[in-house]
Write a structure and sequence with these properties.
Blueprint lengths: L9 H27 L5 H8 L3 H29 L1 H21 L3 H29 L3 H32 L4 H4 L1 H15 L13 H24 L4 H23 L13 H31 L4 H6 L2 H21 L2 H18 L8 H27 L4 H32 L3 H25 L3 H11 L13
Helix pairs in contact: 1-5, 1-6, 1-8, 3-4, 3-5, 3-9, 3-16, 4-5, 4-8, 6-13, 9-10, 9-16, 11-15, 11-16, 11-17, 13-15, 14-15, 14-17, 15-16, 16-17
Length: 481
C-alpha cells in the first residue's frame, strides 16, 4: 500500500509534508523516550525481577549499544532498498520488541527484548532524517523541520521520566512498554499512506566486515566494563573481552582504510572539527547517560522518593533543554560553534562537581537547580556537535559525518551507564557510589570545554577544508517518487 504516494504541490503539499513530519517526530519520540523512561523503572526491576546492578546496566545499555552499532548500517540500507520500507520495518521491530519487554518473565528476557527494540529503533532515527531531507526540499522549510525534529530530544527527556514514573507507580513497570504499541501501529499505517518511497541515486556499497567489527568493538568494551565487578577485573572473561576490543579496533582501522566505501570513513578524523565533535559527543552523552542512571538510583534508593517524584525532578532539565536548544542553534548560526560548546561544557562541569558531593541530605532544591543547569548545558551542546562534525565537509558526505556523530552519542551514553553503574556496584553504599561516579564523570565534562576550543580554531577549520578536498563531488540524491 502507498507505493504511488506523491506529495502534492501548493498549500496541500505543505500540509502533507507537515503530516509526514508529525508522524516521523512521534515515532522518534518513542525511540528517544525509551532511553529515558526505563531509568525510573530500575528500582522496580530490582523488586519485581530481583535484578542486580549489573543487570540494570544491561537493561539500559542493551538498547543504547545496539542503537550505536547499527545506526549507520540502517541509514545505508535505507538508501539502497527504500527509506519508507526500512522505516516501516523498524516500526514493526520496535513494536514487537516493546511487546516482548512488557511480557518478560526475567531480567534476561527483558534484556533480549530490549535488543529487538533497539534494532527497530536504529532503523527509525537516521532513516527519518533522510526522509525529512528528501521531502522538505526548500532550504528554509527544511531547517524549520529539522528544528522541530531536534526538539524531540528535550521533549523525550521531560515526558519519559514523568510518564514512566506515573505508569510505574500506578500500573507497574510493564506499562512503560505498552504505550509504544498503539503509537507504532498508527505510525505504520500513516507512513504507508503519507510517506513517498525514495532511494539514493548512488547508494553506498555494503561493508559487512566493518559492521561486524564495530559491533565487536562497542559490545566487548561495554561488556568488559559492566561485567568487571561481577567476574573480576583479572578474570579470563573480562581479559578476553578487553583483548577482543583491542583486536576489533586494530582490525577496523586496517580494514576500513582499504575498503573503497567504508562504513566508518577514517579520513574524516583528519578533520580536527570532526574528530573533536566525535569525542565531545561521547563525553557529553556519557554524562547524560550517567545523569539518568544515577539520579534514578539516588532519588529512589537513597532519598526514598517514588518513581513519579523521581521523574518530576528531571523536569527542570527537560524544560531547559526544550527552551535552550533553539537558542543554541541561533548562537551557532550567528557566532559559530565555540561559544555554545564552551558554555554548555562549563555548565556540565559545574553540575558534575556539585553531584560529586552528593550525600543523603543534599537539599532537593539544589538537585533541581543542578538538573536545570545540566539541561541548559546539554541543550547548548547538541546543535554545535552536529554543526562541527559536518563543518567543511562536502554536502554529499555530510549525512555520513552526521551519522558518525549520532553513533558517538549513543556509544557515549552506553559507556556512561557502564562506567557509572560499575562504580556504584563496587561502592560501599549507593550514596557513596553515586558521588564517586560523578567524580569520575567530571573529567569528561572538562574535556568538552577543552575540545570545544581546540576544535574551532582557524587551524582546525583548515584541516576540515583539506579533508573535504579528498572527496570528489557525488551525483545529487534521487528525489521522492
Amino acid at each position: 500500500m502507498g507505493n504511488d504516494v506523491v506529495v502534492p504541490a501548493g498549500p496541500a503539499g505543505r500540509r502533507h509534508r507537515l503530516l509526514i513530519l508529525a508522524v516521523l517526530c512521534t515515532s522518534i519520540l518513542i525511540v528517544s523516550m525509551d532511553v529515558t523512561i526505563i531509568n525510573v523503572a530500575l528500582p522496580a526491576l530490582v523488586t519485581d525481577l530481583r535484578a542486580s546492578i549489573t543487570e540494570l546496566q544491561w537493561t539500559v545499555d542493551a538498547y543504547t549499544v545496539v542503537l550505536a552499532c547499527f545506526l549507520m548500517l540502517a541509514g545505508a540500507t535505507a538508501d539502497r532498498v527504500g527509506r519508507r520500507r526500512v522505516f516501516q520495518t523498524g516500526l514493526v521491530l520496535f513494536g514487537v520488541g516493546s511487546l516482548l519487554c512488557s511480557l518478560a518473565p526475567t531480567v534476561g528476557w527483558l534484556i533480549g527484548a530490549r535488543v529487538v527494540q533497539a534494532l527497530g529503533g536504529a532503523m527509525l532515527n537516521p532513516v527519518a532524517m533522510s526522509i525529512i531531507t528528501n521531502v522538505f526540499t526548500d532550504v528554509r522549510e527544511r531547517a524549520r523541520a529539522i528544528g522541530v525534529w531536534g526538539a524531540m530530544v528535550g521533549i523525550s527527556l521531560g515526558v519519559g521520566p514523568v510518564l514512566g514514573g506515573l505508569l510505574v507507580d500506578t500500573v507497574g513497570w510493564r506499562a512503560i512498554f505498552w504505550v509504544n504499541i498503539p503509537v507504532v501501529l498508527a505510525a505504520w499505517i500513516l507512513t504507508a499512506r503519507l510517506v513517498p518511497e525514495s532511494r539514493a541515486a548512488r547508494p553506498r556499497r555494503a561493508d559487512p566486515v566493518g559492521q561486524l567489527l564495530v559491533v565487536a568493538l562497542l559490545g566487548s568494551t561495554v561488556a568488559a566494563v559492566i561485567e568487571g565487578p561481577r567476574l573480576g577485573w583479572s578474570s579470563a572473561g573480562v581479559l578476553g573481552l578487553a583483548a577482543l576490543a583491542v583486536v576489533a579496533l586494530v582490525s577496523l582501522v586496517v580494514w576500513e582504510r582499504r575498503h573503497p566505501e567504508p562504513l566508518v570513513e577514517l579520513r574524516f578524523f583528519r578533520s580536527a572539527p570532526f574528530a573533536s565533535a566525535t569525542v565531545i559527543a561521547v563525553c557529553a552523552f556519557a554524562a547524560f547517560g550517567s545523569l539518568l542512571f544515577l539520579s534514578a538510583l539516588y532519588l529512589q534508593d537513597v532519598r526514598g522518593l517514588g518513581a513519579l517524584q523521581a521523574g518530576l525532578t528531571l523536569l527542570p532539565a527537560a524544560v531547559a533543554t526544550t527552551v535552550v536548544a533553539p537558542l543554541s542553534g541561533r548562537m551557532v548560526a550567528a557566532r559559530g560553534a565555540r561559544l555554545p560548546l564552551v558554555l554548555g561544557g562549563s555548565a556540565m562541569v559545574l553540575v558534575a562537581l556539585t553531584f560529586s558531593q552528593l550525600s543523603p541530605t543534599t537539599p532537593l532544591w539544589l538537585i533541581l537547580l543542578a538538573h536545570g543547569l545540566f539541561g541548559c548545558g546539554f541543550a547548548l551542546l547538541n546543535p554545535p556537535i552536529t554543526n562541527t562534525a559536518v563543518n567543511g565537509m562536502p554536502p554529499e558526505r555530510a549525512g555520513v559525518a552526521a551519522a558518525v556523530a549520532s553513533t558517538s552519542r549513543q556509544a557515549g551514553q552506553s559507556f556512561g551507564v557502564a562506567v557509572s553503574g560499575t562504580v556504584v556496584a563496587t561502592a560501599a553504599s549507593t550514596a557513596a557510589g553515586v558521588a564517586t561516579a560523578w567524580a569520575v564523570v567530571t573529567p569528561l565534562t572538562v574535556a568538552v570545554v577543552v575540545l570545544g576550543v581546540l576544535g574551532t580554531t582557524a587551524r582546525a577549520r583548515a584541516s576540515a577544508a583539506r579533508v573535504a578536498a579528498l572527496f570528489p563531488a557525488a551525483p545529487s540524491p534521487a528525489r521522492a517518487s
